[in-house]
Amino acid sequence: MLGAMTAPTELELVARLALAVALGAVLGLERETRHKTAGLRTHTLVALGAALFTIAGAFAVTGDQNDPSRVAAQVVTGIGFIGAGAMIRSGVTITGITTAATLWMAAAFGVAAGMGLYVVSVASGAMALIVVLAFGPLKPYVLSPRSRRRLDIGHLPGSDVLDALIASVGDSGGRLSVIETADEGELRRTSVVVWGIATPQLNSLLRRLSDHADVIEISPPPPTS
Question: What are φ and ψ of residue 175, in 5° steps?
Fold first, then answer.
């Protein structure tokens, strides 16, 4: 049991906090560069706070009440409120789910680092970074290859462009997956993958979408005829 172990020195506890900060910062920096709702500071503070709560629960209380697992459980519960704040609902679409998941992972890094699981913390951080960096670009290649097409749509924020596209694809019997959404100044770029819909039908759908007042560009552009 953790309570029976020799208490670490304060220097080692500070090292655990520093590891939590580093892991949270790496994940937060990736979110920051993609202009997500929660970035570098939020992820770093979540990881640091989780580590501090874990350390306090493990070593600040002695005796039978020393149960770090209870602190870890409360951290998981508490991070739900922050994760919910990272998600944004617009019509039938919800964005920010990946960012909410990375915040949850940042809290997990903090708990693991606070308990002194250095190798586990670093390995988990590397795995999480691989997931957020590599899995997005790979997504189009692991989906059904039939009539699959990736589209990058530039449109005005706050518009119903994505809702209109989802509804049109669904009405045509196809499916759509949002890969990434990022703001670039006054323009929002949304990358999607559409599949399960015949190419001529999809081209016709995209031509109608390109006439939408809030759509600035579609890449690759649909053929004119």
Answer: -135, 155
CB 153 within 8 A of CB 161: yes
Contact 91, 160 (CB under 8 A): yes
Q: Return d(Cα 29, Cα 32) in angstroms, integer.
A: 5
Residue 157 lies in a domain: yes
The CATH number of residue 179's host domain is 3.30.70.2690
Q: What is the mean pLDDT of residues 31-58?
A: 88
Q: What is the pLDDT of residue 2?
A: 45
C-alpha of 75 from chain center: 18
Its pTM stands at: 0.60
| 80, containing H or E segment | helix 68-86
Kindly list the distances between the CA atom of residue 104 and the CA atoms of 81, 100, 126, 154, in Å, as whole numbers in the listed order. 10, 6, 15, 30
Report the alpha-carbon distance of residue 101 to residue 182 in Å, rounded.
17
The amino acid present at 36, given as its one-letter code, is K
Question: DSSP alpha helices (H): ranges in 34-67?
Answer: 40-59
105 and 10 inside one domain: yes
**6 touches 25 (CB < 8 A):** no
